[in-house]
Amino acid sequence: MKKLTVVALIIFLSACHIPQLDRFDPVATELSGKGVQARTTVARDRHGIPHITAQSVEDALFAQGYVMAQDRLWQMDMLRRLATGTLAEVAGEQALEADLEARRLRIGPLSAEYAKRMPAADKALIAAFARGVNYFIDSTRGRLPVEFRVLGYDPKPWSVADTIAVCLQMYRTLTATWRTELLKASMIEAGDADMVEALFPVLEGSEFTPGSNAWAVGGQRTVSGRPIVANDPHLEFSLPSVWHLAHLKAPGVDVAGAALVGVPGILIGRNVRIAWGITNLGFDVQDLYAEQIDTRTGRVEYRGRLEMARGEREVVLVRGGRTVDAALWVTRHGPVFLQEGGTAYSLRWAAAEIEGFGFPILDLNRASNWEQFRAACARFPGPAQNFVYADRDGNIGYQVAGRLPLRRKHKGDVPADGASGEHEWEGWIPFEELPSAYNPPAGLVITANQNPFPARYKYPVGGNFAPRYRADQIGHLLKAKEKWRAEEMAAVQTDVYSAFGKYLAGELVAAYDRRGRGNVSLAPAADLLRNWDGQMARGRPEPLIVALAFQHLRKAAAERASPARGARYEAQMGPAAIERLLRERPPSWFEDWDLTLLRAFVDAVEEGKRMQGRDPKRWDYGAYNQLHLRHPVMGRIRWLGQYFNIGPYPMSGSSTTVKQTTRRLGPSMRFIADLGDDEGFYLQIIAGESGHLLSGHYKDQWKDYYDGRPRRVSFSKPEGVSVLRLQPN
Hints:
The chain is of the alpha+beta class. It is 34% helix and 21% strand. The protein is built from 21 helices and 28 strands. The strands form 5 sheets. An 11-stranded mixed beta sheet has the order 1-28-2-3-6-7-8-9-17-18-20. Strands 4, 5, 21, 24, 25, 26 and 27 form a 7-stranded antiparallel beta sheet that branches. Strand 14 (323-330) and strand 15 (335-340) form a beta hairpin. Helix 15 crosses helix 16 (523-530) and helix 15 packs across helix 18 (575-584). The longest helix has 28 residues, at 57-84. The chain is globular. The two termini are 47 Å apart. The relative contact order is 0.16.
């Protein structure tokens, strides 16, 4: 059957006029060209991961650009189009709104400007990578990936600005808070301000903000006697993965790990001396300003005077020949891109105010000690991140990096008055005063997007910091075992215990015992929750009951705080806010909290019956929390599309478990490195290394990812299954 499926796919692709269909995976070959200065080799291991050996860093990055394009060229093109607002040109009307928003954020112009002003040494490194991408494009004209053929276009050359645009797109993904500001302001306007504030806790944050886990364990807690670093970034699911795995070896650098698609170097990984991981900080770096602007003339009021906004105009091309005018006013605060209820809002964003956009990833890759590592972090332009560190000498550390705005007269959580001039940023928090730790006494460094700032921090703090559920559970698990091996960390990364879920289940059962025993329809669900162990596991009914009850309880609280707007708050409320209310039970919210819980319980059970039948014992959380990854183009083809997709698969985990899994996001990559192991480390992504539909590495990592089995990657002696040799002319 599988053979017939492959034959059918080949016939289909042949109909699309795709030549050389046998070259789904790179093969041993030798290429000559202008790209490298000396002989460079790329040895692909059994996972398809390229291990690059070069005589200079520039040659290594050229080769990285070549092999990344070899695996992911169409994805790279889509990412730069998404960032710069040129998707509609190839995807049509369905992409127009995304293009218009990208144009309003000015990512294209910002990328071009940053490329001009970038330090020469940094620019040369990205330029070497871009030459490698373009060498692949030029050498494969007429036999590019199938998506280009289906959509009927060829990619433009890659540039330094394109890499910066991809970086800014990730910046945008991890820092987009302006919609939350509007939501909170509208809820305050229609409801009780104090209650709304309670639903937006400054130090706990938004449930659905992309997050991650990372930790370092000191040598006193490991079998090898040297530290272990683990990291699993949580991002929106995508096929192919946003990560491309690689190993770069050249004079002064020997580093392996995960690269961001479209970006050279290794963002998360290890070298001979150190290993590191990254999680999103969540500090608020976007502010909306309500402007007094005449959108016909661009005159805008500021401090009692009129000044001129800068007018910009771009044209968005839409497939089929239509063009859309994208006109924009840019004030001192940023682009005016939103008007609600007659009010014009401009957006100030830290990403738009970087002096000298640097590229410190190669500095991270070459660092050999804590001082060099922190020096690289000091150059990191953003998005603001938590960096976890360990080295062969036994040291572990933690460092916040990125540009964090300093606010004195407003919190940035709702739109500010742009005309008064009283709510300006006053610079940036100095790097030396950002949270940092080196060799903490407990021998542990843990970050799971929780607020890292001390209670009496000298600067104002605001942002979407995660509740401490994940961080606390990681700490509990790490302390429960005396000595750890690297591969055992996979059990921590895939843990699905929810302290919040367990607490809410107890509250529901207690309310039932006190007030609900007369409701026979709740009895089976209450009996299930009574002895539940808090595991948000697929195949179990209890997680589904708790998840649905939480949704109804969250909606009830939001409607109480803002009756006219509460329903809009559903996607933003965090479990921590609900738990705090349940523990304190303020009578101003609900006269009878038990009755409120019972209503949510009843609504959850009734919803569960509609979804999965009348017997709660037969319910399955995994059928509710499903993952279905679709290829953006080929996955839509009737009958054949299913072979290019993954799923649907039932998933374990929730927003409050270490394995943070929802229908939208989850662990995008898993990395574990023991600094006492010179031979290798553990690294896997969600699908596979290749973006080519018929490649053996298109989704060969999925099964291990789904089952939580770590994949070992050789570091010191990779075995090359196929070898590419790049030769200078």
